[in-house]
């Protein structure tokens, strides 16, 4: 009987251990930038990580599940762990240009640029990245110059998507920045 009770307690303890994705290191042991995927490529419903619940939940807008009013996500949307851009604890956003990854996936990525958007008078930065592993890349670019020179259509698609994805229509595309700017933004928002 005691053995079964101990086994049950061990199972309960393990089940209650949840990863706090916001506290994962920003970089892996081999110095690769890490991204945590919230909303997989191809989704129209937005998912976000709830720090308090330590789980991924539907993003709500006026009490309703937020749904993209345009084409589905063109990449895997998530955040860079151990970064914090506001008092709500939201991490710096990242869009990983790769095949669909499930919610909660951790990826090693290389920033290739940054998109600047304006919403309600506030500037919003989204890092654009590709997987670090060449075998996982669908876009063979590891910097902004390579993305711009070899994939101008991808940049145009992302610009159109970010200009139209918000149903309320109050998001304005401001511009592109290079990977060096993206890296500075990551450093700027890292929690020390």
UniProtKB/TrEMBL annotation:
Pfam families: Pyrophosphatase. One of its GO terms (cellular component) is cytoplasm. PROSITE patterns: PROKAR_LIPOPROTEIN. GO terms for molecular function: inorganic diphosphate phosphatase activity; magnesium ion binding. InterPro entries: Pyrophosphatase, Pyrophosphatase_sf. Its EC number is 3.6.1.1. Its cofactor is Mg(2+). Keywords: Hydrolase, Magnesium, Metal-binding. Gene3D superfamilies: Inorganic pyrophosphatase. SUPFAM superfamilies: Inorganic pyrophosphatase. It is an enzyme of class 3 (hydrolase). One of its GO terms (biological process) is phosphate-containing compound metabolic process. Coiled coil: none annotated. The keyword Nuclease does not apply. This is inorganic diphosphatase. It comes from Pontibacter mucosus.
